[in-house]
Amino acid sequence: MRAQKHISRNRESSSRESHRWIRELASPYLKGYSPSFISQDGLEGYSFVADAVAPRQSSVQHVSGGAKSHPEVGFFVGHLQENSGKYSFLRPEPPECLIFASVSPTRSDLHRELVREPGSLFRKTFEYIRWLTHRPPRFVFHEKEEAAMARHTSMKDWPAAKREHLSRNFFIETLCWLVRSGLVRKLREEAAEFSERS
Fold first, then answer.
1. Taking the complete model, does pTM exceed 0.70, yes or no?
2. Which of 97, 102, 101 is nearest to 168 (CA)?
3. How far apart are CA 152 and CA 146, in angstroms?
4. Which strand ranges, in their side-by-side order, compose the sheet holding 33-40?
5. I want to staple 93 with a disulfide (CB 3.0 to 4.6 A). Which of 8, 33, 35, 154 is the partner?
């Protein structure tokens, strides 16, 4: 049992090291968001969560199962290694490069305000960013998901020796569009305003 935990920790440490370049590449684009390594649900990469949205007692919400959760907003930058049930709505062809903007939990008032409502930040941004990106892979919008707006592409036909280089190009291009669209700044600001009102 102890040996299995040691092997699992070594794998996570190795995976974290092999993905460290993602944090270094994405951090300048995602200022005001704190990175943390993720290796779950088929994802391997970094989650960037807005610093401005601090959990407060008044903003704690009940979600299914009676668990408490506070709203979080941010981005994921990394890879989807398997067709996990949680991300099957993307219809991925793993392994994939994946960036998504997220609001969680999906049943929160924050998700309703920023994602689901007509004229919401995510809807307006999606319309604009789809206009910006004329070639595949295009951004996709999923109003009922935490990963509400995503851009992803399969790496399965990429030569193994070029995967990191091509991933970097994909991430830089996508992050530039997210910054240009204003979503990086506005998501943090609108979530902070929501937190103040709650």
1. yes
2. 97
3. 15
4. 33-40, 43-50, 72-80, 96-104, 147-154, 140-141
5. 154
